[in-house]
């Protein structure tokens, strides 16, 4: 019965937020901020109206689908022609900034949490490395922000999830098997396999889906009302097909969207429509469940050290590696700081924690890891939600000539 109450509450929250969403956005209050707050209010932390287990299957499925749809839509709405001309920034972020972030997060974790096993600290760093462009939606959707910068932030957010995910699974497997040293290098091949097969499957699904869509529209086989459903089916199909073929489903969703949105204007338009409706709904529901299930279970384990690491994760441990990676990219300092700040933690971190919880069975022994991720995401929801539009406006004023 608990799950039915949660679904009822979600419907009421969607209605309430929908009626006042525009008024709230004018106050720089984002959807994730509101839905997380509603979740907190209804949880045992607030009025204790309802509660749900953090590793409940339906929670994992909702968050998983949300991330798949976000990755698919973000990739589809990228300007691939622009990306070909300005690929160097995302490449720097992913292949220089990302590894430095993981190493720095592990090292700082060892200083703040000296009693935690090194392998747990590596896991913590990995969980907090992926970024979530949805929490800074105003930045990646504001046409006044230069396209090159918006595209770079979007590509980084879309690909770092899939790159980190195989590493998370590898570390979890090592912990489960009792290994504490990363001596076995077989994980390198595993990561490579996940990325390559994920990209190939995603590209194939995107190609076939787009080809059939064009043919169906040209021959008038398809009702127009169904065209918004095709992107959802392609995104989910690419994810589960890749997972069954030893690939990474999240990378597959990204590449399926990348092909579908950049080779077919019909698909691109409908993907944009669904991203603003169905995709947005799954994202907001995920943040509601975060406030309802995640925060209460970790509340007792939150300490000053946990808050300190969370703060550093959003600032120094994110921004310094990004700035280092962008040295020599011919960007001014304000652009480097702008990109560095907009690395929110959200859906991916939540999903990865769910996967760890599922694999480990409980949070026993991982209290520090869970509490740090929870506090970091919670801080990010409000910090990036409140600053996205004001900083986008500020940055656009001084960089109009870049558009």
UniProtKB/TrEMBL annotation:
Q: Pfam families given for it?
A: Na_H_Exchanger
Where it mainly occurs, coarsely classed, is membrane
* InterPro entries documented for this protein: Cation/H_exchanger_TM (IPR006153), Na+/solute_symporter_sf (IPR038770)
Listed GO cellular component terms?
A: plasma membrane
Q: Where does the record place it?
A: Cell membrane
Annotated protein name in UniProt: Sodium/hydrogen exchanger family protein
The membrane-topology field of this record reads: Multi-pass membrane protein
The opening ranks of the lineage are: Bacteria, Pseudomonadati, Pseudomonadota, Gammaproteobacteria, Alteromonadales
Query: What biological processes does GO assign it?
Result: proton transmembrane transport
Per UniProt, the keywords (alphabetical) are: Antiport, Cell membrane, Ion transport, Membrane, Transmembrane, Transmembrane helix, Transport
Which residues belong to any copy of the Cation/H+ exchanger transmembrane domain? 13-394
Entry's Gene Ontology molecular function annotations: antiporter activity
Q: Where are the transmembrane segments?
A: 58-81, 93-113, 119-140, 161-183, 195-217, 229-261, 281-299, 306-329, 335-357, 369-387
